[in-house]
Amino acid sequence: MEIKGSGYSYREISDVHDTGTLWQKIADQSADAWVWHTWAAHEFNVCAATQYDVVDRSFFVYEGDLPVGVVPLTFQKSSRGIEAIYYSGFLPWPALCHVGAGRRLLEEGIFEEIERRAKDHGVSLIRFWFTPPVPGVGDDERTAHIAQLFGYDRTALAFHEVEIDSDTLSRVRDRYRRYHKKYFPLFLLRIAEGNEVTSDLAKNYAELHRKDSGRTVRSLESFERQADSARSREGFYVIAETPDKTIAGMLLISLYKGVAYDSSVAIDPEFAELYVGHLLKWKTIEELQRRNVASYVLGPAAGIGASPKEVGISHFKDGWSRGNTQTVWQLEKVMSRR
Q1: Is the pTM of this model over 0.85?
Q2: How many domains does the chain have?
Q3: Are residues 173 and 119 part of one domain?
Q4: What is the CATH number of the domain that holds 235?
Q5: Domain assignment of residue 17, yes or no
Q6: Are 229 and 40 in contact (CB under 8 A)?
Q7: Which tens digits make up the pLDDT trace of 215-244?
Q8: Between 302 and which of 46, 144, 212, 306 could a Cys-Cys bridge form, CB atoms 3.0 to 4.6 Å apart?
Q9: What is the pLDDT of residues 248-288, one digit of tens each?
Q10: Which residues form the signal peptide (predicted)?
Q11: Angle, to 10 degrees, between the axis of helix 308-321 and the axis of helix 276-290?
Q12: Are residues 141 and 172 in the same domain?
């Protein structure tokens, strides 16, 4: 069907043969697409949100018979009603490629289609993050235009970013270097990716996650789907083990288009006082140096109204990023109930 006013059309993902291959091809070619746009990320988010009665209304965008975009769009229940978000808490911005000067008009049509689908499903809130792997000079105007046209509240979020070069570890907070020197000899640190990411490893991470959080927060199948990013080499696990092979901590790094992101971490509470989290970060930076990756994004910095826990996490991250941040644009809208 035609996307109103754009000259482009959309097709439901269920109507397209070999959905995952096409989705990933578009993500690979789109300058907008980063770690949350991959097919593996989509499958994980849908699987993890099954407990919230997730409905997948994602669609592809075509110019004639040429696929030029993918729009991740899922609805799930929350205490506030039905929300248009991923399990991760937001939707990634529509990923487009090969559209050139027609992008502005196409994005207007896409967001109109998103609103139509959201209203039909009784959605109460929509939240997007604009997260290209490399921020561009037009990001501000582009997101501002959509926000103004459709009535979104737009917020600039600061994300901690570590610049990776040969001197990165000499710039981290002084006591982090002392922790590494003192506690590194107690553990074996290793990287797991590709065929090394077995079902047993995914189960080990699920159990570690349960210990860390004190409860089971999602299904074992979701941990399998989360592990797919490392299996497909769109990331890797960093694992800290004791000499007797007891897993003390695991960190999943997403690595896509040359930019790394902290995806998920779990520490066995028994080892928390041995600064395992610091050792995992240190090993990650060494691995990124080895791979000549220039940027490592750690996630949002604590803003106004942040909880004490969020402030503490942000302070920990700033010990690695040392005040360096990048801007991620958030667009959020509370839908009218009329």
Answers
A1: yes
A2: 2
A3: no
A4: 3.40.630.30
A5: yes
A6: yes
A7: 999 999 999 999 999 999 999 999 999 999
A8: 306
A9: 999 999 999 999 999 999 999 999 999 999 999 999 999 99
A10: none
A11: 40
A12: no
